[in-house]
Amino acid sequence: MMSQITPITMPKFGLAMTEGKVALWSKPEGAEIKVGDELADIETTKITNAYESPVRGNLRRHVAPEGEDLPVGALIAVVADAGVPDAEIDAFIAQFQASFAIKGGDVAAAPPEPKTMQAGAWTIRYLETGEGQDGTPILLIHGFGGDLNNWLFTQPALSERHRVIAIDLPGHGGSTKQMDSGDLSTLAGAVVSLMKALDLPACHLVGHSLGGAVALQVALDEPGRVAAVTLLAPAGMGGPINHAFIQGFITSGRHKQLQPVLELLFADPTLVSRDMAEEVLRFKRLDGAEQALQRIADASFDGDRQRISLREQAAALGAVPVQVIWGEKDQILPPGADLPGGWTLHTLPDTGHMPHMERSAEVNRLILDFTAG
Q1: What cellular component GO annotations does this protein have (predicted)?
Q2: How far apart are CA 150 and CA 153, in angstroms?
């Protein structure tokens, strides 16, 4: 009878996550659930993220109370047929908890650490996972003000099938801050230099926001190095940009100033944690970081308009397939830009400018399906 009982455990969101808490149960005890249903909101030090059910069945028991910190792998719920007696559920929980305590929790291997590499004129920080996987390599390119940590919900899932490299663009994270120019050609050239230095075959490029424009520029400059492109809330199509966000991000020097700026990125502003704001502030305090951001902003944006429009050029990409994923409630780059014909557009409801963080499971599925296709 025990085989009819399935444990639901604290998920691992991101390579460095060691614990989390159930912030809110989305499904009550006794609910019939299917694969992909949102079971709970899981809060980490980075962000709160919806946890989708990996199984179908009857949600017989909430084991984890809301608000309690638990290690990755800890039992948070039990799924079982309605006919399984409560006594067997109790026994299963007791057995799981005892075994978990004896093992000391799930002792995970140390997460991979970012590396730096000299790529042409640039020192580029990158994080590589999934070495040895057979799928097309995937290169993750963050947006304005971001870094490779923006992919904490994306990189682990993609790494199950692909070699995945997340990078810090020049002016960001642990990469070179000294830049003569912050224009798109400079950023794309740095990406190509890294691809050459790593001797990468044709990659699937995934670019978010300004990183989307960078991905397109790489595809235009070096089409032989690009197998496909996924654009998340992309810049580079011309049109409006939220100037208040750009300037607020650059000039905010304290948590109280930065918090409301970061909240513009999400449909649900409560997803922005204090730790997230403090991490951004730590990056901005690095020598040359603020100046580099201003240089990139000056090259890319003109007040509330984008300087970059790759639409006509991108329409000529030809054999390189492109999909676009956009949140309906994006407050930074309005969804529904004038996209070239032949591109596939996925619009996600109740989602802002960070679909890979707000709707990570769905975005990951779309990327994996696209690479498989």
Answers
A1: membrane
A2: 8
User: Per DSSP, what are the bridge partners of residue 22?
Assistant: 42
Q: What is the pLDDT of residue 100?
A: 82
Cα–Cα distance for residue pair 360/77, rounded to 1 Å: 21
HEC-encoded secondary structure of 267-295: CCHHHECHHHHHHHHHHHCCCCHHHHHHH
Q: Is residue 110 part of a domain?
A: no
pLDDT at 286: 86
Question: Rounded to an integer, what distance in angstroms lies between the CA atom of residue 373 and that of residue 369?
Answer: 6
Ramachandran angles phi, psi of 255, nearest 5° = -55, -45
Cα–Cα separations (whole angstroms), residue 209 to 77, 206, 223? 37, 10, 20
Distance separating alpha carbons of residues 12 and 314, to the nearest angstrom: 37
Do β-strands 322-327 and 344-348 pair in parallel, antiparallel, or remain unpaired? parallel
Residue 293 within any structural domain of the chain: yes
Residue 179 is predicted with a pLDDT of 86
Q: Among the three residues 78, 103, 128, which one is the final residue of a domain in this structure?
A: 103
**What pTM did the predictor assign?**
0.82
Q: Are residues 141 and 270 in the same domain?
A: yes
Task: Enter the tokens of residue 10.
Answer: 């604290």
- What was the pLDDT predicted at 314? 84
In this prediction, residue 287 carries a pLDDT of 85
Task: Give yes or no for a contact between 48 and 41, defined as CB atoms under 8 angstroms apart.
Answer: yes
State which residues form the domain around 190: 115-372
10-residue stretch averages of pLDDT, the chain, 373 residues long: 76 77 92 90 80 90 91 91 89 86 60 90 94 93 95 92 97 92 94 96 96 96 95 94 96 92 93 85 89 95 93 83 96 86 92 94 94 86
CB atoms closer than 10 angstroms to residue 87? 8
Judge if 39 and 135 occupy the same domain.
no
